[in-house]
Amino acid sequence: MSKKVLVPVDGSEQSETALEYALEEFPDANITAINVLDPIDAGYNAPVGVPGGSENWYENAKAQSETLLEGAQETADEYGTTLETATEMGRPSSVIVEYAEEEGFDQIIMGSHGRSGVSRILLGSVAETVVRRATMPVTVVR
Questions:
Q1: Yes or no: is domain 4-141 CATH 3.30.70.3450?
Q2: What are the pLDDT digits (tens) for 46-88?
Q3: Residue by residue, what is the 3-state secondary structure of 56-119?
C-alpha cells in the first residue's frame, strides 16, 4: 500500500519548497495538494458596501486556487508524478488537519509559513497549529 501524503499549497515560496520536498522524498507516494480558501480573507479583501462582494471574493479565490493547483501539477510533472488536488473552505489549520484525518493521510508536509506581516501575528502560524493538532506525522519545510 502506497503512502498518502498531503501537501497544503498557498502560492508561497515555502509551500513550493514543501511540494518539491514531498515529490523528491516520496516518489512512490500518493500526493495530494490542497488549497484552503479562508473566508476571513473575504472580510479583508471584499469591497465594503458592494452587494455581492463576498460572492465575487469566492469566485476570484476559487479561480486563484485552480491556477495555484495547476501550477502544483506542473511542478509534479517535472518529477513524473500526477497529483490529486483539493480545494476546501475554512480556517486553514483546522481544514488541513480534518481533511488529513478524514481522508486517511499518513503524513502532512508543509511550508513553515505562508502568511507574513500583521496577518501572521494576528492569525498565528498555520504550520504550528497543524503540528500541534495533527494525529499523523507533520514535516515542516523551510
A1: no
A2: 555 555 556 788 899 999 999 999 999 999 999 999 999 999 9
A3: HHHHHHHHHHHHHHHHHHHHHHHCCCCCEEEEEECCHHHHHHHHHHHCCCCEEEEECCCCCHHH
